[in-house]
Design a protein that fits this description.
The protein is α/β, with parallel strands linked by helices. It folds into 2 domains: 48-250, 2-Layer Sandwich (Cytochrome Bc1 Complex, Chain A, domain 1), CATH 3.30.830.10; 274-471, Cytochrome Bc1 Complex, Chain A, domain 1, CATH 3.30.830.10. The protein is built from 17 helices and 14 strands.
């Protein structure tokens, strides 16, 4: 029998012998010299797609690992369809649809029923879409899908629940200037998309005050029809049986009228001016600058994904390396050209910095944007960025729920069903010249709108050098009172 000491000695000896046998060509001195085999092909499952006679699109992906079923619904609606005097209506509709319950179960009773089954039903309406979701044990699917259908088909919009939801939104309005990050996000959208654009509007006391229960009912009546919905199911079910149950609760829902949703206005070019918002209770300055971004289906999409990785995709990216590490101007710095599915995203560079380094921070961000052209990405940067993107791609499709979420999005925004499969090939095909050309074409410092938020005393010297600085008023309009 070996002693413990003898065993350890033997293991160490074998390890050293194994190391000595490693060929010299396999040993490297720098991490950049490491060689890796090509990435293996990733098999991405494709959901079964069925369209019911009433127009409801159903995507199904079986997953028998756990006895659970998850359902997600996308509805063709969104706050961007609100009239200017009713901003907040979509959000209220999405909230009270669930909290108010249906004609078969009140909201509170629905809560109790779901809690007893460890199940969940949620609804909401965002900027470009309405969503609804449910999850339950597979044994409870037939009961919970019926409750889910009732909430979507016949909500009551309980007046008491509407009052609660309104009060919560009113409270949010009162606190909307508490967070510097919220201010920056909100006001930057106004600068780029335009004050009047639905992509930049926010609820006010007056718009909420004008919303009635009848408005919620009319919103639901206008947009909630099966031919405006896409349903995705993932979980422990047999596809044929799940379809029978879906048809049982949704199949007799009549198709709604065809509606041509209006086009949504936004600025195509922002005013390249310096803007300032005074916020005295800050110890730092918030800086953001940029212009309109792109659509995901733009021909330069893959090249810009690589550009964004080079600019701000990791701790070794240019913004982190130069602005944060070398110049020490910010702990948190970000930047890139944003994409939207059916309207352009935002291109922006942002950071927080000490008030006394506000000017240096502005200069540093502009410099990095310019250097994407004057010191364009190198072959090594491009290859490193592509490798990072490709290596992380697998984590975006490592569960069937994630895959379903992507296919729901593609279906909703009418993108090709192979969009997910295209991504890897698209990134692999990107060349250094394409990245340089895309960066030069789509990142334009001379067009930047610059917004600074912070205390006047600290930021004033940095802003004094500009001939024109437009100060923005973010005071909260109070409710109008009748005479």
């Amino acid at each position: 029998m070996f002693t413990i000491h003898a065993r350890k000695t033997l293991v160490i000896t074998m390890f050293l012998l194994g190391t000595l046998n490693v060929p010299a060509w396999a040993q490297v001195e720098r991490v950049e010299e490491l060689q890796f085999p090509p990435l293996p092909d990733i098999q991405i499952l494709k959901p079964t797609r069925v369209v019911l006679e009433n127009g409801l699109v159903v995507l199904l992906l079986e997953d028998h690992e756990l006895p659970l079923i998850n359902v997600s619904m996308h509805i063709r609606t969104g706050s961007r369809l609100e009239s200017p005097d009713k901003v907040g209506l979509a959000s209220l509709t999405g909230t009270v649809m669930r909290t108010g319950g249906s004609t078969t179960l009140s909201g509170d009773t629905l809560d109790d029923r779901l809690e007893g089954k460890a199940a969940m039903i949620e609804t909401s309406i965002g900027e470009t879409a309405g969503t609804a979701s449910m999850s339950c044990l597979s044994d409870d699917f037939s009961q919970v899908i019926q409750m889910f259908a009732d909430v979507l088909r016949q909500p009551t919009f309980d007046p008491e629940k509407l009052a609660i939801a309104k009060n919560q939104m009113l409270s949010s309005i009162a606190r909307q200037n508490d967070s510097p990050d919220s201010i920056v996000s909100r006001e930057y959208k106004k600068l780029i998309y335009g004050n009047d654009s639905p992509y930049a509007r926010v609820p006010t006391y007056n718009t909420l005050g004008s919303i009635t229960r009848e408005d919620l009912i009319m919103w639901h009546r206008t947009y909630y029809h099966p031919n405006r919905m896409i349903m995705g199911l993932v979980g422990d079910f047999e596809t044929s049986e799940a379809l029978i149950r879906i048809k049982r609760v949704f199949g007799n829902w009549n198709r709604g009228p065809a509606i041509d949703d209006p086009s949504i206005p936004f600025h195509t070019t922002a005013n390249p001016t310096v803007y300032y918002i005074e916020k005295q209770d800050m110890t730092q300055a918030k800086i953001i600058m940029g212009h309109l971004g792109l659509l995901r289906n733009h021909p330069d999409y893959y090249a810009i994904v690589v550009t964004n990785q080079i600019l701000s995709g990791s701790f070794g990216a240019r913004l982190f390396s130069n602005v944060r590490s070398q110049k020490g101007l910010a702990y948190d710095v970000h930047g890139g050209i944003g994409f939207g599915w059916d309207y352009p995203g935002l291109a922006s560079l942002s950071m927080s910095t000490k008030t006394e380094t506000t000017g240096q921070g502005i200069d540093a961000l502009i410099e990095e944007a310019r250097k994407m052209v004057t010191a364009p990405p190198t072959e090594q940067e491009v290859q490193k960025a592509k490798t990072s993107i490709l290596n992380s791609f697998v984590f975006s499709v490592d569960s069937r729920s994630k895959i379903m979420g992507k296919f729901l999005t593609y279906e909703y925004y009418q993108y090709p069903t192979d969009w997910l499969v295209r991504f890897r090939k698209g990134i692999e095909a990107v060349t250094t010249q394409q990245v340089r050309s895309a960066a030069q074409q789509h990142l334009s410092p001379e067009k930047f709108a610059i917004l600074v938020v912070g205390p006047r005393e600290g930021t004033a010297p940095a802003l004094a050098r500009y001939q024109t600085v437009q100060e923005l008023d973010i005071s909260i309009p109070q409710p109008q009172t009748e005479n």
